[in-house]
Amino acid sequence: MHVINNIQGVIKFVGSGRNPQPLREEEIKKILGVEVEEEVTHEEIPFHVGQVVEVTSGPFTDFSGTVHEVYADKGKVKVEVSLFGRPTSVELDYTQLKGY
């Protein structure tokens, strides 16, 4: 550490504490531009196609509709609601819905 700190242009090590810490594997891959595979976890979406749901938050709060598609990978649900008397499909986060 003394040798590195005495190199002209080196001020000090970055980070907290006195001793340098090695980079994590993810940090090295990010610096080198290597694609990092992120661990994907899918939550269980408690709705199914044809189920009647109520929107609990967002611009369609208090609207009721029918589930038409479930996108488990995105955590989204496509719901058909009645807007001005016409069926309209909206894609909502499953946390914005409540089942009957």
What's this model, at a glance?
This protein is mainly beta and 100 residues long. The chain contains two helices and five strands, in the order ααβββββ. The mean pLDDT is 85.
What is the number of helices? Answer: 2
Q: Can you name the CATH architecture of the largest domain?
A: Roll
**Main sheet strand line-up:** 4-3-2-1-5
The share of residues in helices is 10-25%
CATH class of the largest domain: Mainly Beta
| CA(first)-CA(last) distance | 65 Å
Low-confidence stretches: none
**How many strands, what sense, and barrel or not for the largest sheet?**
5 strands, antiparallel
Radius of gyration: 25 Å
Instruction: Give the CA-based shape.
Output: rod-shaped
CATH topology of the largest domain: SH3 type barrels
Q: Number of domains in the coordinates?
A: 2
Q: List the secondary-structure elements in sequence, H or E.
A: HHEEEEE
What average pLDDT do the residues reach? 85
Beta fraction of the residues?
25-35%
Structural class: mainly beta
Q: How many beta-strand elements?
A: 5
Helix/strand layout:
Layout: H1 2-5, H2 25-32, E1 52-55, E2 64-71, E3 76-83, E4 86-93, E5 97-99
Antiparallel strand pairs: 1-2, 1-5, 2-3, 3-4
